[in-house]
Amino acid sequence: MTAEKRIPVMEIFGPTVQGEGMVIGRKTMFVRTAGCDYSCAWCDSSFTWDGSGKDDIKLMTACEVLEELKRVGGDTFAHVTLSGGNPALLRHLGELVRLLREQGIGTAVETQGSRWQDWLLEIDEVTLSPKPPSSGMTTDWDMLDDIVERLQSNGNGFSLKIVVFDEDDFDYAVKVHRRYPDVPLYVQSGNSNLNERDNQKLLSLSMAAYERLVERTMASTELRDVRVLPQLHTWLWGNKRGV
Amino acid sequence: MTAEKRIPVMEIFGPTVQGEGMVIGRKTMFVRTAGCDYSCAWCDSSFTWDGSGKDDIKLMTACEVLEELKRVGGDTFAHVTLSGGNPALLRHLGELVRLLREQGIGTAVETQGSRWQDWLLEIDEVTLSPKPPSSGMTTDWDMLDDIVERLQSNGNGFSLKIVVFDEDDFDYAVKVHRRYPDVPLYVQSGNSNLNERDNQKLLSLSMAAYERLVERTMASTELRDVRVLPQLHTWLWGNKRGV
User: Which residues contact B16 (CB under 8 A, 6 or more apart)?
Assistant: First the structure.
C-alpha cells in the first residue's frame, strides 16, 4: 500500500458515549483524523490542525485502524465515529468505511460540509456542521447546497448541526434551517471555556449556556421543528481528551 | 360528543425540550394524560394515577386539547409528546393524533407496552418502555412481543427504552435487547431522588448514576449497539413539574 493511501490518525479510543447531535448517547469508538481546512476560533480539537499534536499522528492503513479498534475496544462495540479535524479531506477513508461495514459495524461522521467524498454515501449517520460566524470561518453555500442535495437523495441518516455561542450564531442557525427546511436540525450550545480545568465550574457554565439556548429556541417561531442539545461528554468529563 | 370520547388531561405545557430517549432534545409540547395500569415504585409522575392530582384532571375533547396547545404554545411548536400515566389506555386519543397530523404537527408517545391501540401506528416516534424489576411491575412478554411486532412492521420511528436503577435492571435491559435485537435500544439512568429539592445535589446524584450506567454499558459485550442517556430535563430543572 502506498503512503498516500494511509490515514493520518490522531487518536483511537473508546468505547464511550457520543456526546453530540443525532448520535447522542450512542455507544461508539472514535477514530480522530488529523488535518482540517478550517481553523475555528473555538475548536475543541485544535490539536488536530494547529501543529501541537503532530507528534501523535500515525499514518495507518484501514486494516491497521480496524486492528487497533479491536485491540482497544475488544468485543464491546458495534459502532465507530469518524471525527477530526475534517475527515472529509481524506479520500482514502472510504476503505475504512467499507471495511467497517463488512464487519457489520455502524459508522457516523461529522464534517463541516466544505468538501465532498463519495464514501459519505456509505456512512450510517452523517452530521454536517457548517460553522457559524463566531468561528471566524466563511460558509461556501454552493458547496453546502451540493453536499446537502447528495445526502438527501441518499436515504441514510443525515442531519445538520449548528453550534451556537451568540446571537449572530443563532441567526445563522435560523438561516440554515430556512435554506434546508426538510433536513433535521440540531442546535448545540457552544463550550467557550476550553481551558477550564475545574469540571464543576465548567458544568455550571455549560449548563447555563444550554439553558440560554433552550430559552431562545423555545421562543422562536422559526426554529419550531428542531432539537436542542448540549455536549453531553463535556458535562460528564470536562475538557479531558480521549473519553 | 359523548363523555367517553373525552380525554382525561392532567397537564398541557411547553414548548420545552424532550429530556429522554429517541426524541431527546426535541422542541415539543407535552400533553400528559391521567391514569395508569402500572404503579411503578419510582414513578416520577405518580400524581397521574395515585389520586394526588385528581382535582387537576380535565376531560377534554381532541379539539379542546388542540386549542389549549395553541393557546399555550402559540406559533412556536411543530411537535407534541403524549405522555402519562399510560396514554395507551385511551382508545379515543386517536382522534387527537389524527387532528395533530392534519395540522402538520409531529407526535411522540411513551408507553410501557402493556396495551395496544391502533393509533400507535400513526405516531411518528413511539417509545416502548417496559419496566424493569425495581419498578415492582411484571412484564407481560406475550403482549410486548405482539406490540413490538406491530410497530416493527409499521416503519415509523420506534424504540425501546429501559430505565436502569440497579444490577437486576441492567440484566433486564440485556434480556430485552436479546429478545428484540433489531429494535433500537435506549438505556437510561433512573432518578432515585424524586423528593430532592436541592437541584445542585440532585444534579450530582443524577450525573453519578449516569456515569455508573455508562461504565457498565461500555464494558458489556452484549449491549454493543445501544444508546445510553440521562434524563436531560432533570439535570436542567430538577424535579419541577411542568417544564
Answer: A214, A218, B27, B28, B29, B30, B233, B243
Q: Model confidence over A11-64: pLDDT tens digits? A: 999 999 999 999 999 999 999 999 999 999 999 899 999 999 999 999 999 999
DSSP string, chain B: --GGGSEEEEEEEEEEE--SGGGTTBEEEEEEEP--S---TT-TTGGGTSSTTGGG-EEE-HHHHHHHHHHHHTTS-SEEEEESS-GGG-TTHHHHHHHHHHTT-EEEEEE-SSS--GGGGG-SEEEE-PPPGGGT----HHHHHHHHHHHHTT-SEEEEEEEE-SHHHHHHHHHHHHHSTTS-EEEEE----TT---HHHHHHHHHHHHHHHHHHHHH-SS--SEEEE--HHHHHHTT-S--
CA dihedral B191, B195, B200, B203 (to 10 degrees): 0
- ipTM, two decimals, is 0.93
Q: Convert the pLDDT of each residue in A162-208 to its tens digit.
A: 999 999 999 999 999 999 999 999 999 988 887 877 888 888 888 99
**Cell numbers that stand for A163 in this block:** 453550534
What's the pLDDT band for B6 if we cut at 50, 70, 90? Answer: very high
Are A217 and B27 an interchain contact pair (Cβ–Cβ within 8 Å)? yes
Predicted pLDDT at A2: 54
CB-nearest to B207 from A78, A227, A236 is A236
pLDDT band at residue B242 under the 50/70/90 scheme: low
Whether B63 has a binding-site annotation, put simply, is no
- Name the DSSP letter for residue A191: -
- Residue in A225, A229, A234, A237 to test binding to B, most B beta-carbons within 10 Å: A225
> Sheet holding A7-17: strands in order across?
A58-60, A7-17, A27-33, A79-83, A106-111, A125-128, A157-164, A185-189, A226-229
**Binding site as annotated, residues of A:** 17-19, 32, 36, 40, 42-45, 83, 85, 129-131
